[in-house]
Amino acid sequence: MNGHLTPPIHAGWAWQFSWLNLSAADLIVVGLMVVVFVLAIVIPFPDHKGGDDE
Amino acid sequence: MARKWRNNNADFPQKPYDLIREMLVALGIMGALVLVLAAVFSTPDVPALTAQQVARQDPKLLLQNALDDLSGQDAISTYGPPYNNSGTAQSIAGFSPAQIAGVQIPINSAKVNVLDPLNKVAKIDTSLQSPLQTWSKATVKQRSAWVNHIESALNHATLQHGVLVVPAASPDSYGPLPTMLNAYLGLARSGLLESAIDGGSGPMPATNRTESLLLLQDVPDAQYANQLDMSGNQWGIIKETGNYPGAVWLWFYTLLYQIPPFVNSSSADLEVVLTTGIVTILLVLTPFIPGLRSLPKVFGIYKLIWRRWYRTTTKKGRGHA
Amino acid sequence: MKKNMTRSLRLWVQNTLPMENLLPDSMPSYVDSYVYLFGILTVAALVWLIITGTVLAIFGPEWWHVSPVGHFFNSMHFWSVQAFFFFMVLHLWAQFMMAAWRGGRHWTWIGGWLLFLVSIVAGLTGYLSQNNFDSQWIGVQGKDAINSTGIGGFFNILNFGQMYGLHIFVLPMVIIVLLAIHLMLVRMHGVVEPLPNGKEEVDNGEKVAEQ
What we know:
The structure holds 3 protein chains of 3 kinds. By secondary structure, chain A is of the alpha+beta class. Chain A has 1 helix and 2 strands; from the N terminus they run E-E-H. Chain A has one helix spanning 24-42, and strands at residues 14-17, 20-23. Chain A has a two-stranded antiparallel ribbon with strand order 1-2. The model of chain A is unreliable at 50-54 (pLDDT under 50). By secondary structure, chain B is an all-alpha fold. Chain B folds into 3 domains: 8-42 and 289-316, no CATH class; 51-219, no CATH class; 228-284, no CATH class. Chain B has helices at residues 19-41, 51-57, 59-71, 97-101, 109-124, 129-137, 140-154, 177-190, 193-198, 210-215, 219-227, 251-258, 268-284, 295-299, 301-305, 307-316, and strands at residues 14-16, 158-160, 163-165. Chain B has a two-stranded antiparallel sheet with strand order 2-3. In chain B, a hairpin with a 2-residue loop joins strand 2 and strand 3 (163-165).
């Protein structure tokens, strides 16, 4: 009486380490957040020096 | 009212800026991003688990579910508030908000999930009327004897052409249950069970599906979710079906369920919600909490963010005021 | 003499939020980093959430399950949600790292947190409005936490009609009101000035701003 119910799709790949179980999609999102945050700090913002006449 | 609001931004050296242009550019970029992500990745839409699917893929599970409902052994019958008073509400040191709020959505699983739907069927299939009467007239002791007998026979029972055949026993040991269970199985197979549960109030659309959602909420839903990697100890609440990102922003709340002391607690939900609430309040009140509000200074990320400003101001000396 | 309420309101608005502060055409030159864009990107994602959500609401909650066009709008709505939280959390990180609550800006910080919390509830009600296994499972799983707090009888996450109504009207309205207040507070106070680059204490007072 166990495991007869079958969903139409399979679970995505998940990373499992002890009690930590995160799906690949979630890990990618978190990784991207860190990357975007670091890049936003590191990349110099375009300088407006020289004036903008609008 | 006398004092004019002082916004000290004007005291600093200025650079040109166009708020409306920035908003429009952001809208354009975001629109393009969302359009591309939607076109490339689409979205998951795994249909809800239905009684019909359970009746087809694992009929005995559905029957076991019904027997649990009939004998009051299902998870909802022993849940406590807001559904009934027969379970222990979660509490911390005697404090139980659920108990204080009381029974707001009374649910009687046997009646709502099994007997009421069967009574509706009995109006069409009159041969069901007498078994249902036998059940309703029987004593509680008699009913649980029938349920116990058929439960122990269920493993050896077979389904022949969709009809449950239980091993022969002394004539009365199963009571009306074989007839009732077969009718129930038929109702589920027809796809009308959920509608029979929710649609009790005439032609109104069943926008409140609490009762039919509670039908499969324990074992069937959990079995299904487990195969999709979405059960509670798999951090299910932040996960989306398939290969899609879910509610990642709930990570702290979900994390607590996985670790001591919450992981083995019988009041885990209440403890996790309260802990998350307290941590949230601390973060909301960061500006007033010494130590916490000085963390940005410790991390020093601000030195990177404002590096060009610091460079120009140290060159010129403080450039404002 | 009777006070003229209309005039009082006008003067208060003129004093607290003069037009040149509300719609600025210049910024202090320390506003010089991409981290300042996370806020406006969050607002942009919210606008797309409202646009795609409006289309989904017009055609009804069943539409996206049966129509490829509906499914596409659902996909845009889904990815707008991801972008919305993605940039909102980055905005939160950036504001924390800049200690942006300084100089009397604590209400802006608190309001931002309220927006985050209401958005989480909006996201939850959205998940519950999907009418698929995701919503079914989140409903039956999530009910235990809500019930443990005692509000499950009033905020019943298994009640589709209630969740749908909250999701398409009540919560978006609350978010829009909170956002309007948040943006007005930002424009009233101006952008937070850089932390002193020396050894001064970080505190909530105004003294940091004065040198």
